[in-house]
Design brief:
Elements: H1 14-41, E1 44-46, E2 53-55, H2 61-95, H3 104-115, H4 117-136, H5 141-152, H6 158-175
Antiparallel strand pairs: 1-2
C-alpha cells in the first residue's frame, strides 16, 4: 500500500506559513468586524414597544451617507481577510502535523469556524452589494438603508452567534483544552 504525498510535504514548514497567514488575516478580519459593528451601531434605533430595528432619523442624510461609506470600506477589508482566513485554515488543517484526534481544541475550533461558513457567505454577499453600491453606482440613501437593515437582521441573529463562536476559538487556541498528552 502506497501513501499519497502532497506536494506541500516536500516543504515541512509550509504549515507554519499557513498558520501565520491564518492568524494575521483572522486578526484583521475580526478587528474589522468589530469596527464595522461599532460604526453601524450609530445608525440603529430600537423601537421600545416592538423591539424592531430602524434607522436613526436624528442623523442627517450626509452623516448617514458617510457612515455607509465607512461600512463599505470595512466590508472590503472583511471580505478580503475572511477569504484569506478561510483558505489558510484549510491549508493549515490539511498539512499541519496536528491531528484532530489528539488535539480536541483544534477540532472544536474547526467545527465552530466551518459551521458558520454559509452564514458568512450570505452576509458577505450582502456586504458585496453594499460595496458595489458605494463604489460603482450612485444609488440613493434608501437602498443603503434597506441593505444595512437586511444585513443587521440577517438570518435571525446567526452572524452575532457566529462572532461569539469566533471569539471562543481564540480562547480554545490559547488554553488548548482536550489535548491528549502522549503517555510515557
Amino acid at each position: 500500500m502506497t501513501m499519497r504525498h502532497s506536494p506541500l510535504d516536500q516543504h515541512p514548514n509550509a504549515w507554519r506559513v499557513a498558520l501565520f497567514f491564518l492568524v494575521v488575516s483572522a486578526i484583521i478580519w475580526l478587528g474589522a468586524t468589530v469596527t464595522r459593528a461599532l460604526i453601524g451601531n450609530d445608525l440603529l434605533r430600537t423601537d421600545a414597544e416592538t423591539l424592531m430595528l430602524s434607522i436613526n432619523d436624528d442623523l442627517s442624510p450626509e452623516a448617514q451617507r458617510e457612515v455607509f461609506r465607512l461600512l463599505s470600506i470595512c466590508s472590503v477589508v472583511i471580505l478580503g481577510a475572511y477569504i484569506v482566513t478561510l483558505i489558510s485554515s484549510i491549508v493549515f488543517l490539511a498539512i499541519s502535523p496536528f491531528r484532530l484526534k489528539q488535539h480536541g481544541w483544534l477540532m472544536m475550533s474547526a467545527i465552530l469556524f466551518y459551521l458558520f461558513v454559509p452564514v458568512e457567505a450570505w452576509t458577505l454577499y450582502l456586504d458585496g452589494e453594499m460595496i458595489y453600491l458605494e463604489f460603482f453606482t450612485t444609488e440613493g440613501l434608501e437602498r443603503f438603508q434597506e441593505l444595512f437593515l437586511a444585513r443587521v437582521g440577517a438570518l435571525a441573529g446567526a452572524p452575532t452567534i457566529a462572532s461569539l463562536c469566533y471569539f471562543t476559538i481564540i480562547g480554545l487556541a490559547v488554553f488548548q483544552p482536550m489535548k491528549k498528552i502522549p503517555a510515557g
